[in-house]
Design brief:
Blueprint (H helix, E strand, L loop, with lengths): L1 H6 L2 H13 L11 H17 L4 H8 L8 H5 L5 H24 L7 H4 L5 H12 L3 H13 L7 H11 L1
Helix pairs in contact: 2-3, 2-6, 2-9, 3-4, 3-6, 4-6, 6-8
Length: 167
């Protein structure tokens, strides 16, 4: 799957990870950090659709410099294995979006946790995503085929409609 992912243009790669994250985020709806997770995904969609946020804006949601908030710290509090997989996928998607935002801004220096992010993070994302639900293997295939189409909308609402039709 990595070879198919790498062939997608940069924004479609971001849409791929964010779209798949939207299919699993509700598994964390009882998490005390659910509002923070939802906000971070919204910011990432805002970056994808309108480039309205900077790499630093996105990074602050991952790591705000405290030991209590920021998604990197909050995910460490999860002790449920399934929810831990969901956290991992979502943080991978946000980190990847963050990396793309820094690239878009032509930032030379990246925060240390983002320095090692590249397209290969998609494999880590998918490894966890496949473990969450068996059907996710089919979901991934159908979604990447959808994104390969040059006329594919990268708007969150359109992508969510795609997933609704797949159910």
């Amino acid at each position: 799957m990595l070879e198919k992912f790498v062939k997608l243009e940069a924004d479609k790669q971001v849409a791929f990870l964010l779209g798949l994250s939207e299919t699993i985020v509700d598994l964390l709806n009882t998490s005390p950090a659910y509002k923070d997770i939802s906000k971070a995904l919204e910011v990432c969609w805002g970056w994808l659709e309108n480039k309205e946020y900077s790499g630093d804006d996105i990074y602050f949601l991952l790591d705000d410099g405290t030991e209590f908030t920021g998604l990197f710290m909050q995910m460490q509090d999860e002790d449920n294995a399934l929810k831990g997989l969901v956290w991992g996928c979502i943080v991978d998607a946000i980190s990847f979006t963050n990396w793309r935002a820094y690239q878009f801004d032509n930032e030379e220096y990246l925060p240390a946790p983002i320095e090692n992010v590249d397209e290969s993070i998609s494999q880590q994302f998918l490894d966890g995503f496949y473990e969450i639900k068996t059907i996710n293997i089919r979901v991934v295939q159908e979604f990447i085929n959808y994104l390969k189409d040059s006329n594919t909308s990268l708007k969150k609402d359109d992508i969510l409609k795609f997933f609704e039709k797949q159910q």
